[in-house]
Amino acid sequence: MAEEKSKLFEKENRLYKFYLNDLEGKKTCIDFVRDLFKLELITFDKSENLDLVKLYNVVGFDAFFEICGCFSSKTIKIPNIEKMKKNLIIALAYYHVVMLGMNPKEVGRILSEKLGSFNLKQKSIKNIINKLQAEIEELGARVAKEAQNGRND
Questions:
Q1: With contact defined as beta carbons under 8 Å apart, do 50 and 42 qualify?
Q2: Which string of DSSP letters, residue by residue, matches 58-110?
Protein backbone atom coordinates (compact mmCIF):
# COMPACT_ATOMS: atom_id res chain seq x y z
CA MET A 1 0.00 0.00 0.00
CA ALA A 2 1.43 3.32 -1.04
CA GLU A 3 0.03 5.44 1.75
CA GLU A 4 1.85 8.52 3.02
CA LYS A 5 -0.01 8.72 6.31
CA SER A 6 1.63 9.50 9.63
CA LYS A 7 -1.04 7.78 11.72
CA LEU A 8 -2.21 4.18 11.82
CA PHE A 9 -5.85 5.27 11.93
CA GLU A 10 -7.38 8.33 10.31
CA LYS A 11 -10.64 7.88 12.26
CA GLU A 12 -9.93 7.76 15.97
CA ASN A 13 -13.40 6.56 16.89
CA ARG A 14 -12.18 3.88 19.31
CA LEU A 15 -9.90 4.15 22.34
CA TYR A 16 -7.36 1.67 20.98
CA LYS A 17 -7.11 3.69 17.76
CA PHE A 18 -6.41 6.86 19.73
CA TYR A 19 -3.81 5.03 21.80
CA LEU A 20 -2.05 3.56 18.76
CA ASN A 21 -2.03 6.91 17.00
CA ASP A 22 -0.45 8.45 20.09
CA LEU A 23 2.56 6.12 19.81
CA GLU A 24 5.69 7.10 17.91
CA GLY A 25 4.33 8.30 14.57
CA LYS A 26 7.27 8.22 12.20
CA LYS A 27 6.37 6.91 8.76
CA THR A 28 8.87 4.05 8.95
CA CYS A 29 7.36 2.95 12.26
CA ILE A 30 3.82 3.13 10.88
CA ASP A 31 4.81 1.17 7.75
CA PHE A 32 6.57 -1.42 9.89
CA VAL A 33 3.53 -1.90 12.13
CA ARG A 34 1.25 -2.17 9.08
CA ASP A 35 3.57 -4.76 7.50
CA LEU A 36 3.69 -6.78 10.72
CA PHE A 37 -0.10 -6.60 10.95
CA LYS A 38 -0.40 -7.84 7.38
CA LEU A 39 2.00 -10.70 8.13
CA GLU A 40 -0.12 -11.67 11.13
CA LEU A 41 -3.23 -11.42 8.96
CA ILE A 42 -1.66 -13.81 6.44
CA THR A 43 -0.98 -16.37 9.18
CA PHE A 44 -4.51 -15.89 10.58
CA ASP A 45 -6.25 -16.13 7.17
CA LYS A 46 -6.86 -19.82 6.59
CA SER A 47 -8.72 -19.36 3.30
CA GLU A 48 -7.15 -20.88 0.24
CA ASN A 49 -7.02 -17.55 -1.61
CA LEU A 50 -6.10 -15.34 1.37
CA ASP A 51 -9.45 -13.55 1.14
CA LEU A 52 -8.90 -11.41 4.25
CA VAL A 53 -5.57 -10.22 2.92
CA LYS A 54 -7.17 -9.35 -0.43
CA LEU A 55 -9.91 -7.42 1.37
CA TYR A 56 -7.31 -5.60 3.46
CA ASN A 57 -5.34 -4.68 0.32
CA VAL A 58 -8.45 -3.34 -1.40
CA VAL A 59 -9.98 -1.28 1.40
CA GLY A 60 -6.93 -0.27 3.45
CA PHE A 61 -6.11 -0.24 7.14
CA ASP A 62 -8.88 2.03 8.51
CA ALA A 63 -11.73 0.54 6.48
CA PHE A 64 -10.55 -3.00 7.24
CA PHE A 65 -10.92 -2.35 10.97
CA GLU A 66 -14.35 -0.78 10.40
CA ILE A 67 -15.46 -3.83 8.41
CA CYS A 68 -14.15 -6.16 11.13
CA GLY A 69 -16.03 -4.10 13.70
CA CYS A 70 -19.29 -4.35 11.76
CA PHE A 71 -19.05 -8.04 10.87
CA SER A 72 -16.98 -9.44 13.73
CA SER A 73 -17.07 -13.27 13.64
CA LYS A 74 -19.88 -13.26 11.04
CA THR A 75 -19.88 -14.83 7.61
CA ILE A 76 -21.02 -12.56 4.81
CA LYS A 77 -21.71 -13.48 1.22
CA ILE A 78 -20.64 -10.96 -1.38
CA PRO A 79 -22.54 -11.07 -4.70
CA ASN A 80 -20.65 -11.72 -7.90
CA ILE A 81 -19.55 -8.77 -9.99
CA GLU A 82 -22.11 -9.42 -12.74
CA LYS A 83 -24.96 -9.12 -10.23
CA MET A 84 -23.44 -5.90 -8.89
CA LYS A 85 -23.17 -4.49 -12.43
CA LYS A 86 -26.80 -5.41 -13.08
CA ASN A 87 -27.86 -3.60 -9.89
CA LEU A 88 -25.90 -0.54 -10.96
CA ILE A 89 -27.56 -0.56 -14.39
CA ILE A 90 -30.98 -0.84 -12.75
CA ALA A 91 -30.18 2.20 -10.59
CA LEU A 92 -28.91 4.14 -13.62
CA ALA A 93 -31.96 3.25 -15.71
CA TYR A 94 -34.31 4.24 -12.89
CA TYR A 95 -32.50 7.55 -12.40
CA HIS A 96 -32.61 8.41 -16.11
CA VAL A 97 -36.28 7.50 -16.60
CA VAL A 98 -37.85 8.59 -13.31
CA MET A 99 -35.63 11.42 -12.14
CA LEU A 100 -34.56 12.90 -15.49
CA GLY A 101 -37.81 12.05 -17.32
CA MET A 102 -36.07 10.37 -20.25
CA ASN A 103 -37.75 7.93 -22.62
CA PRO A 104 -37.02 4.28 -21.67
CA LYS A 105 -36.07 3.45 -25.26
CA GLU A 106 -33.51 6.27 -25.29
CA VAL A 107 -32.17 5.21 -21.90
CA GLY A 108 -31.76 1.65 -23.16
CA ARG A 109 -29.86 2.90 -26.19
CA ILE A 110 -27.60 5.20 -24.16
CA LEU A 111 -26.78 2.62 -21.49
CA SER A 112 -26.21 -0.09 -24.10
CA GLU A 113 -23.81 2.19 -25.99
CA LYS A 114 -21.93 3.32 -22.90
CA LEU A 115 -21.80 -0.07 -21.19
CA GLY A 116 -21.23 -2.17 -24.31
CA SER A 117 -22.37 -5.70 -23.66
CA PHE A 118 -25.73 -4.82 -22.11
CA ASN A 119 -28.70 -4.89 -24.44
CA LEU A 120 -31.50 -3.02 -22.74
CA LYS A 121 -34.87 -2.97 -24.44
CA GLN A 122 -37.64 -0.48 -23.71
CA LYS A 123 -39.96 -3.18 -22.28
CA SER A 124 -37.28 -4.54 -19.93
CA ILE A 125 -36.46 -1.03 -18.72
CA LYS A 126 -40.15 -0.36 -18.01
CA ASN A 127 -40.33 -3.64 -16.07
CA ILE A 128 -37.15 -2.76 -14.15
CA ILE A 129 -38.53 0.70 -13.30
CA ASN A 130 -41.89 -0.69 -12.15
CA LYS A 131 -40.27 -3.40 -10.03
CA LEU A 132 -37.82 -0.96 -8.44
CA GLN A 133 -40.59 1.58 -7.80
CA ALA A 134 -42.64 -1.11 -6.03
CA GLU A 135 -39.61 -2.06 -3.91
CA ILE A 136 -38.99 1.60 -3.03
CA GLU A 137 -42.63 2.06 -2.00
CA GLU A 138 -42.57 -1.16 0.06
CA LEU A 139 -39.37 -0.08 1.79
CA GLY A 140 -40.80 3.38 2.43
CA ALA A 141 -43.92 1.87 3.97
CA ARG A 142 -41.81 -0.41 6.17
CA VAL A 143 -39.65 2.50 7.36
CA ALA A 144 -42.75 4.62 8.05
CA LYS A 145 -44.33 1.74 10.01
CA GLU A 146 -41.15 1.25 12.07
CA ALA A 147 -40.99 4.99 12.75
CA GLN A 148 -44.63 4.99 13.82
CA ASN A 149 -44.04 1.99 16.10
CA GLY A 150 -41.01 3.78 17.58
CA ARG A 151 -43.15 6.80 18.47
CA ASN A 152 -45.76 4.60 20.09
CA ASP A 153 -43.24 2.90 22.39
A1: yes
A2: HHHHHHHHHHHHHHTT----PPPHHHHHHHHHHHHHHIIIIIS---HHHHHHH
| pLDDT string in tens for the chain (153-residue length) | 444 455 666 666 655 666 566 665 566 777 777 788 888 888 888 777 788 889 999 998 888 988 988 898 898 888 898 888 878 888 888 888 888 999 888 888 888 787 765 566 656 777 878 888 888 888 889 888 888 887 665
DSSP state of 6: S
Whole-model pTM: value is 0.57
3 state DSSP class of 116: coil
CA-to-CA distance for 9 and 21, rounded, in angstroms?
A: 7
